Amino acid sequence: MSGVGTSGTLSVPCNSSDIIFWTNDSWSPPTVLSTISNNDIQFTWEEDGNLDSSRNTTVNGSSIVIPFEGVGVTVLGVNHPGQDAIAVSYQLDGALFYESVPPNEDSFPTVNYQYFSISRLERDRHILIIKIMEVQSTRAYDFQGFVYVNDTFSGSFDDTDISFPQKTHTGIIVGTTVGGVLGILLLLFGIFFVRRMRSKLQVSHHESYNDNIIISDIKQTTINPHSDNSLRASGEDITLATRRPIVELSTQALRKKKVEKDSLPSLPRNAAPSEVITIYDGTGSPDGTIYDPFYSHRKSTTSSNL
Fold first, then answer.
1. Same domain, yes or no: 191 and 67
2. β-strand 124-134 against 53-57: which pairing, if any?
3. Closest CA to 41 of 54, 28, 30
4. Over its length of 306 residues, how does the chain's per-residue pLDDT go in tens digits?
5. Could you give the CA distance from residue 183 to residue 235 in angstroms, rounded to a whole number?
6. Parallel, antiparallel, or unpaired for β 9-13 and 141-149?
7. Which residues have C-beta within 8 Å of that of residue 19, sequence separation ≥ 6?
8. For the chain, does the N or the C end have fewer beta carbons within 10 angstroms?
9. Are 84 and 139 in contact (CB under 8 A)?
């Protein structure tokens, strides 16, 4: 950046190509201050002569963009006579400051008037945006230029001694880190909540299954012996309530087997011819003949009776 100055302090006039006048039509062409009578010029800063021209505006919203690289900056201009208010905003790397130009009770303008000043910045590139918030047609905001300091050990100019915070990108990094941590915590909480809900649902389903009573209709069978050595079943419908039908049906089957074993009489096997004898009842009648297939089992008893 071009400028005039010594000991790390550089002055940049309003006609420098480094300065951008936004809505350029609202700013007047550069006016050389030497055309004003010497009796009307009041220098309020020691380095007079460097900023020998100015550009002014009476349009609200007019802006100036100033890029610089250094640790401090001061904006200078011409404070014209009058009581009308002038309000201006100064935005430096995202930080916003508001300043007003006080009334000038004198009958002549004051040049090299300090509109805004800040120091103790990071040694880096900065952007200063000046925006006119309120101005009257009878009293213009007149911009001469700015002075910036690119060396912390050089002589400094009068300023407000404002300690400027770190640059915007540092705040973005910190904000992103904090946001990431919060996002991870929310994700972990969501996983924990889902697992807890699933566990509760599984326990509830298991208890509901155990509490359900299954009603089944089964046929109760009664085992009776019959003369033709066959089995007959006489049944009636009953309702059985149970919690575990598989176990109960298995028990019913075991009971059925036990009934069959204990209740049924031993069926006779077919008798051999040698085991069949004829017993007479003493009348001599053929009708009194009995064929006893169980002779072998009652032989001793029959002989004693005879």
1. no
2. unpaired
3. 54
4. 555 544 578 889 999 999 999 877 899 999 888 655 444 555 444 444 468 899 999 999 999 999 999 999 999 999 999 999 899 999 999 899 999 999 999 988 999 999 999 999 999 999 999 999 999 999 999 999 999 998 654 444 444 443 333 334 444 455 667 777 888 888 888 888 888 887 777 666 555 555 554 444 444 444 444 444 444 444 444 444 445 555 455 555 556 555 555 554 554 555 455 554 555 555 555 555 555 555 555 555 545 555
5. 70
6. antiparallel
7. 12, 64, 65, 66, 145
8. C
9. yes
Q: Which of 177, 195, 211 is the last residue of a domain?
A: 211
Q: Print the domain residue range for 295.
A: 273-305
User: 288 and 181 in one domain?
Assistant: no
Give me the number of domains the chain comprises: 4
Measured between alpha carbons, how far is residue 142 from residues 101, 192, 221 in Å? 11, 64, 117
Residues 136 and 258 in one domain: no
The 8-class DSSP code of residue 47 comes to S
Residues β-bridged to residue 206 = none
CA 266 to each of CA 229, 260, 274: distance values in angstroms, whole numbers, following the listed order: 9, 11, 22
* Residue 286: DSSP 8-state: G
pTM value > 0.85: no
Give the helix ranges, DSSP H, for 85-224: 168-211
Residues 102 and 246 in one domain: no
Which stretch of DSSP H or E encloses residue 240? strand 232-242
> Pick from 278, 273, 305: which is nearest to 291 by CA?
278
Is residue 205 in some structural domain?
yes
Considering the domain architecture, whether residues 79 and 144 belong to the same structural domain is answered as yes
CATH number of residue 112's parent domain: 2.60.120.260
